[in-house]
Write a structure and sequence with these properties.
single chain, mainly alpha, globular, disordered N terminus
């Protein structure tokens, strides 16, 4: 993978990368859905597989803000119930990612993102979704979530669908999801470093430079989630994410 100096980014691309870091911060601290917009944008700038490695430390930095704020609200039994299945999904994605070209990788990312949007919209339309609280359900969503988080860092809607089955209160919902993704993202780091080689010292330094944007997004998320009408925001996120995802094809 080329280092960030060799990327020769334009001013506009640097702005987009910083904006993506900001959106990830927001998505981790309350305004769900914003993170889906980031995946196709970063893939368009850096390439499909390379962008997954570049995004991972950014996600982890944002996870730190989320788990710090919502730490006491996590329900660990749900994290441990889903985690083993997610690991299986990650290794399936690892194998798939080794066999395909970057163009195909980006197309798979687009499909994963669009599938996540469909789930998110369905949840919004069906306010009271009755989902089964069974082990087979956790297994299916865990594997699907692990696959989608490794391929495109886009497992948010799938995890949300599983958490709906737990009927957790709002803060417990956010805290449980925050800890799940923090753990799963840390587990992905060695695979990106040694298997896909999409994380190296240069990419990490680039991510560190984006920490101020992540922090600003995280702090904004704590406050904006109370101010912005959820319906309007989600419509905007869904529309722009769909456009960006289709551009990956």
């Amino acid at each position: 993978m080329n280092n960030f100096i060799e990327w020769d980014l334009t001013t506009w691309e640097c702005f987009l990368a910083a904006s993506c870091a900001f959106l990830i911060g927001i998505s981790k601290t309350g305004i769900s859905g914003a993170g889906l917009m980031v995946v196709p944008i970063m893939a368009g700038i850096f390439g499909g597989k390379p962008s997954t490695g570049l995004l991972l430390p950014i996600l982890i930095f944002a996870d730190v803000f989320a788990v710090s704020y919502y730490n006491r609200h996590a329900r660990w039994k749900h994290v441990f119930k889903l985690l083993p299945w997610a690991v299986i999904g990650i290794f399936i994605a690892l194998h798939v990612g080794e066999m395909i070209k970057d163009e195909v990788f980006k197309e798979i990312m687009a499909i994963v993102v669009l599938a996540g949007i469909v789930i998110m919209v369905y949840r919004d339309v069906k306010k009271e979704i009755k989902v089964p609280d069974k082990m087979w359900f956790a297994a299916i969503l865990g594997i699907a979530g692990g696959f989608s988080t490794m391929i495109g860092n886009a497992a948010g809607p799938i995890m949300a669908l599983y958490l709906l089955s737990t009927r957790l209160p709002k803060n417990n919902f956010i805290g449980t999801g925050a800890w799940f993704f923090f753990i799963i993202n840390l587990l992905k780091v060695p695979l990106h470093v040694f298997a896909w080689k999409t994380i190296n010292f240069q990419t990490f330094i680039f991510d560190v430079l984006l920490i101020p944007a992540i922090a600003l997004g995280a702090i904004s998320g704590f406050h904006l989630v109370k101010l912005i009408p959820e319906k309007f925001y989600r419509i905007l996120v869904i529309a722009t994410t769909c456009i960006a995802a289709f551009l990956l094809f």
